[in-house]
DNA sequence: TTATTTAAATGTAATATATACACTTCTAGT
DNA sequence: ACTAGAAGTGTATATATTACATTTAAATAA
């Protein structure tokens, strides 16, 4: 007997990862891009991607791609959208599921990065990307803006310890607009999710800025009690 | 020469549609479910689905499934999520992209519905569904709640002309809680998106309730000028 | 030691938005 | 003309958001 589904066609399935990082010094969001080392589109810029294997789920495939590229596991990652246009890949029909990931730039070893042909690219200077990767990036950016408004995912882009100035710079980079310093601090501090540390960041000012740490457990507890994170500010 | 991608595996790819309707009389959200007429899981309840063909995009496949089932085109539909667990379908590995659709119950011809083995099912009485379809429904419900808060998509579930009471009933069904009548009306009317008609709905009360119509053009125009729809009410 | 410089830190008043809440109106049917 | 039942309406209070300018801390230079 034929297999139940044998009359239906099969398709290649890829995953592509939109990987964001935040450059604290330059106060800029960055995107991790790959200089392709294989056909088609050899030498062109693309997102990190790979084909889904028979023995792995979609999520596993995305993790594998991300992990192979960065040497990091346990990153923040989320499925974004699946692109299924017939001719999106000129090589063959490939359906691709895009994932977006947030990583601390400092966590990614530059040696590993270089050896994989990956480069951090400012959002304002994204080169032409292959296929529909630009569409993926644009969708991911929109999603990022919406996410950081109501979920505390921005912290994934910062080191464990960060200053309020850095956090505000991050939000300004994502929102692409200035936000009011006092209102921003008032709002984030009123949520009681940040723990003030006993040391200061002393690189960027004489006075120094207090380090804070995001308390994940507190967030989870508050959430169970109906709390909603919100960092929409003027 | 082998094809570029020939070393990679291919996969079956399905689409599944979560189709919501709103029963005005019963003030209840409903889900369109299929009694399966084929293996595997013959006789069990499932979402409307189908395999993606070689000559159609994912979106096209979802439209085809929806159109075949309902006889309707031009429905509100949106990609929801792609489910890629290896063993989600016991018949074979099938990756499935879920779409959610909103339709006016009144628009669906009962004859067409029945002939396709489809039934409207109250949200409170969803039977066991095959595979991971219940997960899909749950995700779609969450998405629906978030969507109607900030986009005027609820109107897709109502006829062209509807009363404010009906609109409020719809929101109450989606939010699964009561909302304040005066605040609800104040808020929706203050957006200037509804046009009061000259006739009344006279089935449910002696007094009759004015019909309104959603003005799509006005919405688009306001949106261009930075307006944001918002119908979060107490 | 004092003055200067630079970024960090802080509070309040005004405005806008969200909420809580109960009675009146309309009309078909008796 | 009375009744019944759903539609329709407004205001006061509380909460959240916004706008905005000075002081503090500490290193460095005078």
List keywords for this structure.
homodimer; 234 residues; alpha+beta; Nucleoside Triphosphate Pyrophosphohydrolase; Arc Repressor Mutant, subunit A; 2 domains; seven-stranded mixed beta sheet; three-stranded antiparallel beta sheet; 6 helices; 29% helix; 29% strand; globular; DNA-binding
Please, could you describe this protein's structure?
The structure is a homodimer of 234-residue chains. Chain A is an alpha+beta fold and 234 residues long. Chain A has 2 domains: 2-149, Nucleoside Triphosphate Pyrophosphohydrolase (Alpha-Beta Complex); 158-224, Arc Repressor Mutant, subunit A (Orthogonal Bundle), CATH 1.10.10.10. Chain A is 29% helix and 29% strand. The first copy, chain A, has helices at 58-70, 110-115, 133-150, 164-175, 181-190, 216-224, and strands spanning 10-23, 28-35, 45-46, 48-51, 76-83, 94-102, 118-122, 161-163, 194-201, 209-214. In chain A, the strands form 2 sheets. In chain A, strands 1, 2, 3, 4, 5, 6 and 7 form a 7-stranded mixed sheet that branches. The first copy, chain A, has a 3-stranded antiparallel sheet with strand order 8-10-9. The radius of gyration of chain A is 20 Å and the shape is globular. The termini of chain A are far apart. At the A-B interface, strand 1, helix 1, strand 5 and strand 6 of A face strand 1, helix 1, strand 5 and strand 6 of B. Strand 1 of chain A pairs antiparallel with strand 1 (10-23) of chain B, so a sheet runs across the interface. Chain A binds a DNA duplex (30 and 30 nucleotides) through residues 163-165, 180-183, 185-187, 202, 204-210, 232-234.
